[in-house]
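Re: that chain you flagged

S.,

Sorry for the slow reply, it's been a week of failed gels. I finally had a moment to sit down with the sequence you sent. For the record, here it is as I used it:
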Amino acid sequence: MPKLESLGITRIEALHYYVRDTRRTGRFLVDTLDFREVGGDSPSTVEKTRQRTTVFQATAEGGGVRFLVSEPAGEGGRAQRFLSRHPEGIGSVTFGVRDAARAFELLESRGGTPLDDLQTFSEGGGTLKTFAVATPFGDTTFRFIERKGYQPLYPGFVSNPKVPADGNRHGFTEVDHLTSNFRSMSPTSLWLENVLGFEKFWEIKFHTRDMAPDRAEGSGLKSIVHKDPNSPVKFANNEPLRPHYRQSQIHIFDVDHGGDGVQHAALATPDLVKTVTHLQAGGAPFMTTPGPYYDALPERLKRAGVGGIDEDIEVLRKLNILVDGDRERKYLLQIFMQEMASIHKDPKAGPFFLELIQRKGDEGFGYGNFRALFESIERAQKHQGRI
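Prediction finished late last night. Pasting the structure tokens below so you have them in one place:
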């Protein structure tokens, strides 16, 4: 199959997060992760859309991360419709593109399903062009935006003059990747490849019975990562693996979420040890990692060809930071926060969670870390009596 023309994606510009209580979500983003509340909808926009959006932003040199957090403001709005079927979660992903008209043309020609026509807005001598498409990611849509000198974040946005837009002590630079869970991910893989023009980047499958074949229980997953060939944007997609399909934490996510959707977002930071040290001192809730993971780490990194790492393994053990790599001192550091339902002690807050990641030359995902995350979620679900 010939290589498809690029959509011209530059980055993930924003995650649109639908919640029941913006103040609760805002406290987590601001107080825990040091985001800034930089603005939100004008009153007329709230009345028109029947939802109230507040924008939280963490900017750093070379980039940043942005959440558009929306709560219902009446019946019939997008937030209310999403939350009538799901707990809180990511309802839309916004991508920056170089040429929105060309991206629209390419998507439609490949069988994409636009939700509206290409729209153009003008203000202050600048223009913003945008459109959205339906996706196989459950009720999560994708929006594409081209900016040329357009200053407001979006039409109807009002900035908060009391809060500086720049800054974040953790230096979050971008959404490194999004991970989503599916009952069956083949339709999504085909859509990413044949409609969006993404390429298959990495894949893995494993089962917790692999290490103990005589176990009468356990669960597994199959995961495929797709990457946009001309930008850093990556999607990791999971489905349950037999046997015990329904015991898989992938299936349990699907039940908790009310269908397929985004499981977690990975935020990139330039110094994960420093970031996690600060966050844990403030009581941030992370998933834990068993001690044997760190006991085996030196030998596992040696087998992977990584050799030594810059960090002290005992510090990583204390902080619960995971390490993986592939060769020649190329490795990555990761840690995963607890699900929002656990953080807020409210099942309606949903199974979405955040990952923090620092890449030190390794652009992959790491078999050992992938398995460690899977098993840590499974442990938590057993403790909660859900398996």
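What I noticed first: The longest helix spans residues 367-383.

Talk soon,
D.
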